[in-house]
Design a protein that fits this description.
By secondary structure, the chain is mainly beta. Helices cover about 10% and strands about 40% of the residues. The chain has 1 helix and 19 strands.
């Protein structure tokens, strides 16, 4: 009786152990004693990227992806793309490249990370010999953009302005951008370069603006001319113009009367 009970307990432990093993290693395709960690690279968030290795087309390749979704190949892929459950592409002859869709751009100044790993194995008469695991860490940054957040407004000549112009930036710090100011005289000034390490910057404007015309509106205009983040290539100017319309001071003019008397000379 003790023997039967012991056997039942032993089988239960075995089944539980097998279940744990299957749940934790279901996607553990890549095996081997060594791993080659490549120099990490940086990409843009939202990329649809292709990853390729130079090996021959006659052997098998398996891939694992953390943080993104494998879209090519379209079939046979398992996993969720998380650290504990990566997307796994089963060993396939000649599969030297895959295509991965990374998560959408969240338009920030902070980075996210992902990983692409691969392994090949050569089939011989009685054994299959795996290579070391090739691992590539990737840091993702938002696309570089600049936006003037203030809305255009209008004032009367001599009235106080509403303060500085706020500029929002996305991408990888540090940022560089340039702007010009067109004064009320209609003349556009020289470009002003700015270096900014954070996600916002300010552009100073005068405390008040005086329209020198008695009849026409005049305009104070801030215009973004260029922008880039810490990588090569120009950023996108999403909203690069801000205008204050300054209305002229209306002149009342002299008061006249229909009853005015005129003295004799």
């Amino acid at each position: 009786m003790k023997t039967k009970m012991f056997n039942k307990i032993a089988k239960s432990i075995l089944f539980v152990s097998i279940g744990i093993f299957l749940s934790t290693s279901l996607n553990a395709q890549l095996t081997g004693a060594s791993q080659v960690d490549q120099t990490p690279i940086e990409e843009r968030k939202g990329n649809l990227s292709t990853y390729t290795v130079p090996g021959p087309d006659t052997i098998e390749y398996s891939w694992e992806v953390v943080g993104g979704e494998v879209v090519v190949p379209a079939a046979g892929v398992t996993g969720s793309g998380s650290d504990v459950d990566p997307y796994v592409v089963p060993f396939t002859v000649g599969l030297r490249s895959i295509q991965v869709q990374w998560p959408d751009d969240d338009s920030t100044t902070t980075s996210t990370t992902g990983n692409v790993s691969t392994q090949l194995r050569a089939a011989h008469a009685t054994v299959e010999c795996p290579s070391s695991i090739q691992s590539l860490d990737i840091t993702f940054w938002s696309n570089p953009t600049i936006t003037i957040e203030n809305e255009d407004y209008e004032i009367c000549s001599g009235d106080a302005t509403l303060g500085d112009v706020t500029v929002a930036l996305t991408g990888a710090p540090d940022f560089e951008f340039a702007y010009t100011i067109t004064g009320l005289d209609g003349v556009e000034g020289a470009e002003v370069p700015i270096t900014e390490s954070g996600g916002t910057a300010t552009i100073d404007i005068p405390d008040n603006l005086l329209n020198t015309s008695s009849t026409d509106d005049q305009y104070y205009i801030v215009t973004i001319k260029s922008m880039n983040d810490d990588f090569q290539g120009a950023g996108t100017i999403v909203d690069g113009s801000f205008t204050i319309t300054v209305h002229p001071t209306v002149e009342t003019g002299d008061i006249t009367s229909t009853g005015t008397l005129t003295r004799r000379p």
